[in-house]
Design brief:
With 386 residues, the protein is α/β, with parallel strands linked by helices. Helix content is 38%, strand content 16%. The structure holds pyridoxal-5'-phosphate.
Length: 386
């Protein structure tokens, strides 16, 4: 079965009892038991399970090509469940341009429990090999493409090195989505998603998931959800089940518009650099081409402007809304240094090349001409000021 058919049919079967083509929302916290601890369908309390979780998990596992998925209250909820499987003294190696919220989760919360985070540049195999040998981590965690610099990390290269050292590989696949990239098929052990983004696709809910082939890990993730209270709401899962049906269509349009935006920005003199993995000028274009079927809808650009002018620019668009988050049908613009990545210390931001001039565009699925006109108007205004 191909991607779109899976998205519409797996975990989305008509309700057996009523024939309802769309499975209902099970808004219940608890379930009647036939005798003490004798469960009719395996459910006892919604913190540990709900038919809407199960339906969605079947869909998401199928889309990632994995055996199991567990859904959570948010992407960071999923990350919390993952980290809760570790113990004091364990080390994690992560890519040095980690999502700000993930970084904060480690440095502000889990560092207090003795879990060590080590940031490393994961683009060179020799450096990765050395970091693995020296630090004996339990996991290697990275995003690809990364947020917001859209760097590409070679999944099969990292997974092969990690396996050699008995280290597990976790890939945050939020930016690519399973439509463009399936990290499990390249050797990753776990895939994480902030389902809030493209999977949800409409900026109307928060959720996350972990996908794996390992049934032992699946059991640990389910347990963490129950024990830590990281469950999503049945309604949000139902919304997600609805949203993923159109993921393929949306991603094609996001990409078509993103390519147009990337090309538009490349041609402007006040733009110093455009970051989009689908541009042949991208330093890891070859790796992107190898491991992705497409390049997604996120475009970042570094502007040759003062901080004050960049802040004015991002506030001046009318179709691109100034807001955090990404992956929805509507186009958003973000100033990482003062918004999504403000929790990363300035020194570290500088080290990874995240400057005050960087602007991130989540290119939506509006009409392309309207998006380009909006950008044209905003950029022309700034060019006049200069
Ligand atoms: C948003 C995001 C997260 C966190 O997910 P939430 O659903 O906001 O908790 C993690 N990783 C990436 C790449 C993200 O963009």
């Amino acid at each position: 079965m191909k991607f779109s058919t899976k998205a519409i049919h797996i975990g989305q079967e008509p309700d057996k009892e009523t024939g309802a083509v769309v499975p209902p929302i099970y808004l219940t916290s608890t379930y009647q038991q036939d005798a003490p601890a004798v469960l009719r369908a395996g459910y006892d309390y919604t913190r540990s399970g709900n038919p809407n979780f199960t339906n969605l998990e079947r869909t998401l596992a199928a889309l990632e090509g994995g055996a199991h998925a567990t859904v959570f209250s948010s992407g960071l909820g999923a990350m919390t469940a993952l980290i809760s499987t570790l113990k004091a003294g364990d080390t994690i190696i992560a890519a040095d341009d980690l999502y700000g919220g993930t970084y904060r989760l480690f440095t502000e919360i889990f560092s207090k429990f003795g879990i060590k985070l080590l940031l490393a540049d994961l683009s060179h195999s020799s450096a990765v090999e050395e970091a693995l040998a020296r630090n004996k981590p339990v996991w290697v965690i990275f995003e690809t493409p990364t947020n917001p610099l859209l760097r590409i990390i070679d999944i099969s290269m990292i997974a092969a090195l990690a396996r050699k050292h008995s280290v597990r590989t976790v890939v945050d696949n939020t930016f690519a989505t399973p439509y463009w990239q399936n990290p499990l098929s390249r050797g990753a052990d776990v895939v994480l998603h902030s389902a809030t983004k493209y999977l949800g696709g409409h900026s109307d809910m928060i959720s996350g998931t972990l996908v794996t082939d390992d049934s032992g890990l699946k059991a640990q993730f389910d347990f963490a959800r129950k024990a830590l209270g990281l469950n999503p709401s049945p309604f949000d899962c139902w919304l997600l089940s609805r949203s993923v049906k159109t993921l393929a269509l949306r991603m094609e349009k996001h990409q078509e518009n993103a390519i147009a935006v990337a090309q538009f920005l490349t041609a402007r003199p006040i733009v110093k650099k455009v970051y989009y993995p689908g541009l042949t000028a991208h330093p890891a274009y070859k790796t992107a081409k190898k491991q992705m079927r497409g390049f997604g809808g996120m475009v970042s650009a570094e502007f040759n402007l003062t901080l004050e002018h960049v802040r004015r620019l991002v506030s001046s668009f009318s179709v691109f809304t100034l807001a955090e988050s990404l992956g929805g049908v509507e186009s958003l613009v973000d100033h990482p240094a003062s918004m999504t990545h403000a929790s990363i210390p300035q020194e570290e931001r500088k080290q990874i090349g995240l400057s005050h001039g960087l602007v991130r565009f989540s290119v939506g699925i509006e009409d392309k001409a309207d998006l380009l006109e909006d950008l044209e108007r905003g950029l022309r205004r700034m060019e006049r000021v200069l």
